[in-house]
Amino acid sequence: QAGYRAWLAYHPRMDSAASKEESLRYAWIASDDRDDTVRAAITEIVEGIGTMYGAAPRISATATDAAGENGPRDSEPNAAYGAGPGILVGTFAANERLRDIFGVEVAELGREGFAIRAKDGVTAIGAHTPVGALYGAFHLLRLLATGIDESELEIVERPANKLRMINQWDNIDGSIERGYAGSSIFYKDDEIDFDPARIRDYARLLASTGINAIAINNVNAHRLESRFVTGDYLPRIAELAAIFRVYGIRLLLSINFAAPIEVGGLPTADPLDADVKRWWRERAADIYAAIPDFGGFLVKADSENRPGPFTYGRGHAEGANMLAEALEAHGGLVVWRCFVYNCKQDWRDRKTDRARAAYDHFLPLDGAFRDNVVLQIKNGPMDFQVREPVSPLLGAMERTNQVVEFQITQEYTGQQRHLCYLVPQWKTVLDFETRALGEASPVKRVVDGSVHGRALGGFAAVSNIGADTNWTGHPLAQSNLYGYGRLAWNPELSAEAIAEEWALQTFGSNRQVADAVVDMLMDSLDIYESYTAPLGVGWMVNPNHHYGPNVDGYEYDKWGTYHFADRDGVGVDRTVLSGTGYAGQYMGANAGTYESFAECPDELLLFFHHVPYGHRLKSGLTVIQHIYDTHFDGALRAAGLAERWASLEGLVPADDYDEALARFREQAEHAKEWRDRINTYFYRKSGVPDERGRTIY
Ligand code: BDP
Questions:
Q1: Carries keyword Cell division (predicted)?
Q2: What are the extents of the domains in the chain?
Q3: CA of 343 to the centre of ligand 1 (A)
Q4: Which of 167, 168, 177, 217 for mutating ligand 1's site (highest number of atoms within 8 Å of CB)?
Q5: pTM for the whole thing?
Q6: Has the ipTM of the complex gone over 0.85?
Q7: Topology of 2-157 in CATH?
């Protein structure tokens, strides 16, 4: 099936004559490196160029071989090397020829960067490390697949972020928490059970975008998953780590904070208890014996009924530091999540505000965490809604490593049945000016470490893949996984440029297809937002599974997710003056902007303020009319997506076409349901008719 190859499809170039000519430019490929990662790079290039141009480069002997120093090594004759145009790939240390070509600039590349230079017929990809060379290979293939095949190239790239991580929410029973693309590719029936070829293909997809870390089990680690840190499971986990290692991806495990009790038979999991500390040190030693480059632990503690240090009257710093000490000697990290809030709060207590929780819990701990601890902070203060303000915790801690956490899996954004390209949302977050240090402290600079001079930082995100042949269910949802990796590597890339890269690589170089797909992707977030919860208020979804409209589904529940709609108005008063005080958590002028009724941006108005239905937005519309208009409009535009997709029949692979068309049709129907439920609800509450006289049931 077409979707399986995703953006590594390496479609044949359209014009076969031109294609033939191009292939002559890559007659051979050579490297003096012999490790698995550079070999993987070579394999990828051979396959990619072979499929795109119809003629694969010959794996040639190298410069050194040609000089006869090492004797014949590969079966290929030496004559190919240097004789015509070809590709050199590898590390500077191993390849004298690459050192000659690149000279002095190479120092800037860091551990994961690469340089590409095409000149005089030779395309050279050089890096300090094998994984840098691999990233360079994928980059060259991306350029070729998107139609950039200059005979002269001069490229230097290095990732903006150190940590570029994926979190799998996969459970050992084979299910995936918030997974919308089939069952797990890692587990089945309470066993670690995988097809190595599929894991390798996942690693290729991830590495091609620059992902360098993966936590392979759900942050909610339960009984069997708690045992992952013990000997029983380590051999299989080590096999997984070995596959990912070739692609420069370090493996992490989500741990259960209570594992010393549940697995270790200790009476306590108190982080200050000597036996508990020893138990974790022993686990770390076992893990590193099996997986020498193990990445570390991802921890969800004291959150949504998961155990944590609070049970013992200890704080998050004490909990995280205890684990960090166990991993430190081995070079491991503790990635500690800040998604900590009281999930049993009461709507009658208007001073308890879930939005405040991460900041209230963690800000006082700034500077208290060890150097190998990274805090993982969700992009917004609530939970991956289509629209939320940016978490005020990002940037507020000056002496603490932080990564931003996104959700690629579309839990609240249509569950991969609706189209919702999330890259524009992530861009909004990354470009948000935190004002941590005056005017030049956007989130992207906070998490890359540069604002506060932190050595460690980056991105984490919840994966959207499963065992479905096309990985993501909705074929176009692949763009979110691709886009996440690309942004983690370079947050300056535009959402549109990423969409275009993705479309060209995935569907081939037909411009009509690429343009249509890019336009649909770029419209999709706004369309989705239009027919769902309005103006930043969020949460009007069915409880538990979170799919489909249910305006009051969570309204009188304990989860702290309210809209407070009554006959007069709607929205949550989070001001300092009269509300929960959340607006005051922002730095500098941001606090005032959100506090003020007049200055608060329209799209977040109901997140910060409880306003009358007749309140006039900056757009000129009243709140109630905005709700009606966006919902009518959103449903129409959702139907339009189905039509736009239908215009591509015969131009995209049939499997993808059918799979997506069925989903677009469902989306169009479902958007009408959203429209009618939301509009009817607010019409009944407010009694205000639609100015434009449309029927509201
Ligand atoms: C929420 C999900 C829940 C996760 C939680 C988390 O509904 O399944 O466990 O996030 O991030 O979005 O821990």
A1: no
A2: 2-157, 163-493, 495-572+610-697
A3: 12
A4: 177
A5: 0.96
A6: yes
A7: Chitobiase; domain 2 (3.30.379)
